[in-house]
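Researcher: Go.
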Amino acid sequence: MNGTFLFSIDLEEFYAVRTDFRRAPLPDLTERYLEFLRRHRAKTTFFVVGELAEKFKTTIRDIAAEGHELACHTFSHRTLHEYDRPSLREDLRRNIDAIRQCADAPVCGFRAPILSMTEQTRWAYDVLAELGFSYSCSVLPSENPLHGWPGFGNRPRLFDGVLEIPVTLARFLWLRVPIGAGTYFRCLPMPVIRRAFRRCAAEETAVAGYFHPYDIDTSQEKIMSRGVKGSRALNALLYVNRGRTLSRLER
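Model: Structure:
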């Protein structure tokens, strides 16, 4: 695991409070990530929202054709707190079916939208196991304004036969934040990020992180996200340094 970055993409739209804004060009943004991965001869996991797999079948097929893994991100990008067992089971079945219409490959990975796997929603592992998932990457193992599981710890853990790989955290000031993930990766000082990556490499642990299409979309209008619980401060951070995401990843 020395020097390993578990880089992944949550293939989703920018889910906004308002529904009449101009949508991002998801296929174009996806192709920018694919080109980046080609140059580095790297493979990754795309956690795909099912309704987008139905809408952008050619894009999903292109991802699979280049050897990347396709995994589930729910069908309609709702947090786990919005489901019960039957509704989550039905949602994930639709998610799996939408992906399999685009690629004939096993679907064994899951990520909960907005990392909403918590102590209160851990019942979801039983549903994941029932549907044949072998791993999840859905936990932010700390206190967080949105969702978090403070007592989870930093190492992967097994629940009902499903391996949970938590997002990697590092300390910044008085906070513990996801060092290789989306908004945090875009906003934190680069020396802080480098130190954290080097520390993980020295400890022979992988860095687990995630990105989204909107993390590289510099032309999107500024609008409130549904995922920040009305916080204007958190929403503002979603737009910071989007134009530097890929260059930071290069570094």
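Model: The chain has a mean pLDDT of 92.
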